[in-house]
Amino acid sequence: VPRALVAEEAGGAAEHTPLLTQDEQRDVLEHLDLVLRNVSELRKEVEELRHSLQRLAADIVGEVRSHLEETQKVTRRRRFPFPRERSDSTGSSSIYFTASSGTANTDDAESEGGYSTANAESDYERETERESEEGEDEVSCETVRIARRDSLDLVSEDETHLLVDSSLEEGLDQLLQQADRLHSGDELEKREGFQLLLNNKLAYADQKDFLWRLARAHSDMCEMTGEVDEKRSYASDGKEVLELALQRWDRSAECHQWYAILCGQLAEHESIQKRIQTGYVFKEHIDKAIELKPEDPQSYYLLGRWCYQVSHLGWLEKRTASALFETPPTATVQDALQNFLRVEELSPGFSKAGRVYIAKCYRDLGNTSAALLWTTLASELPATTKE
Q1: Membrane as a keyword (predicted)?
Q2: What is the pTM of this model?
Q3: Using one digit for the tens of pLDDT, what is the confidence trace for 362-378?
Q4: Is residue 357 within 8 Å of 305, Cβ to Cβ?
Q5: Residue 277 CA, distance from chain mean position
Q6: What angle do CA 215, 154, 139 make, to 5 degrees?
Q7: Burial of 320 (0-12, 13-18, 19+ CB in 10 A)
Q8: ∠218-219-223 over CA atoms, to 5°?
Q9: N or C end of the chain, less CB within 10 A?
Q10: Cα–Cα separations (whole angstroms), residue 180 to 89, 202, 211, 214
């Protein structure tokens, strides 16, 4: 606590009196805490910007390298810039003859050491070059077709539908079914599902149902890992996937739902200010998901958790929310309970954690018998997740 400095003339007998009252000292500490958190956030944002610039530089290098490789292929195909064509016509427009003599001379006697020898040697070379060029052209065209198929920026929607034939769609259906099965399994299966989706990202990066499952797999990896930096990385990458998806498919309930989940996971290790800001985004996307798909129990479960956490905000969090926003988030335990009961109505036994939350809500509301009942009901369900 700051103390008043005593003048030397007063001697050692003078009493030290505090400069600030207890309330003022508390306010100063709160402001210092807020400043330190803002500095920490700024440092993290600078670090994220540095990583983004590094990724951008890597992308540019990759594009330049591929352009150079394509240029080298063209150069190899054109290593004989003047094709040698043999013609018996005196009006031949062959570049070889025009460049050599200025006229098309068909008299073999006059070109005894020149054109006849060159033409004789070029018969085999011409055929070989033509076959080589045709083969390389076919490879080059196929490469261009694949690159266009993989690029969302170069292909229109009509062309995309033409390229994605029935076999590709069938492969996507099988891939999504396998991803759903692995997502419902243990940690090893979830990791396998994550790798499976990553391996097929280039082929199906323009498919909505693939993208939100890829984001879901990032959420699974975030939940399973114990390292804070890895959690942030998985949650951030999954969030970026859905940011791009929502630009095209704003009417997808699954995209909104998993975007909210990843935002929540990303904010778990952030400052109070960042968590409160994320809370608004979370609520906005969960409300949108419920609007688009009102019979999905998971959205109501997530909304119930949000309401319960908001109803239990601490004093410092409430003060921070009031300082940052004109209308701080508000929710009651009763709001949370209604959402959790809605989950049980739509899908009884949907979540062990959901029943535990119902018991906690009844406990907070003073209904001990109902709290004990739902605790018993929760114990009857298997524990399938860490939560």
Answers
A1: yes
A2: 0.57
A3: 999 999 999 999 999 99
A4: yes
A5: 20
A6: 105
A7: buried
A8: 115
A9: N
A10: 70, 19, 13, 11
pLDDT tens per residue across span 91-139: 333 333 333 334 444 444 443 333 333 344 444 445 555 555 555 545 4
**Could you give the angle at the alpha carbon of 316 between the alpha carbons of 354 and 367, nearest 5°?**
35
- Give the domain ranges of the chain: 182-294, 298-386
Domain 298-386 has CATH 1.10.3470: no
Distance between CA 255 and CA 56 in Å, rounded?
Answer: 26
Residue with tokens 């990066």: 205
Per the CB < 8 A criterion, the answer to whether 284 and 302 are in contact is no
Contact 270, 34 (CB under 8 A): no
CA–CA dist 272, 278 (Å, integer): 10
Residue 144 corresponds to which amino acid?
V
199-204 contact pairs (CB < 8 A, 24+)? 200/175, 202/150, 203/150, 203/168, 204/172, 204/175
User: What is the per-residue burial (b if ≥16 Cβ within 10 Å, else e) of 58-85?
Assistant: eeeeeeeeeeeeeeeeeeeeeeeeeebe
DSSP states of 117-130 as a string? HHHHHHHHHHHHHH
Greatest CA separation found in the chain?
129
Break the chain down into helix, strand, coil percent, rounded to 5. 75, 0, 25
Residues 354, 378: Cα–Cα separation, whole Å: 8
Closest by CA to 37, choosing from 277, 310, 305, 314, is: 277
Taking the C-alpha atoms of residue 385 and residue 186, their distance in angstroms, rounded to an integer, is 9
At the topology level, CATH places domain 182-294 in 1.25.40
